[in-house]
Design a protein that fits this description.
Length: 76
């Protein structure tokens, strides 16, 4: 359990955007036969979470209102 927990932490620090599902997939690819529920339990006990992406700031440009057509069939 300790070795598996250490490996999960290594993978989580290496790939910050990977959650427990993708880490489970990596462990299975390495040849470790482990249950996804066990990976989830160890992942949460270690205090790991997927890092949130930073939100982009919107542009400070004032929007212009749409022009209303003056005649029928003026704009399409």
């Amino acid at each position: 359990d300790v070795e598996l927990s250490a490996r999960i932490q290594e993978l989580a620090l290496e790939r910050k955007r990977f959650g427990y599902r993708r880490i489970h997939h990596l462990l299975r690819r390495e040849g470790t036969e482990v249950n996804h529920k066990r990976v989830y339990r160890l992942y949460r006990e270690s205090g790991l979470t997927v890092r949130k992406r930073k939100r982009r700031k919107s542009l400070c440009v004032e929007r212009e209102p749409l022009l209303l057509p003056t005649l029928p069939n003026h704009t399409w």
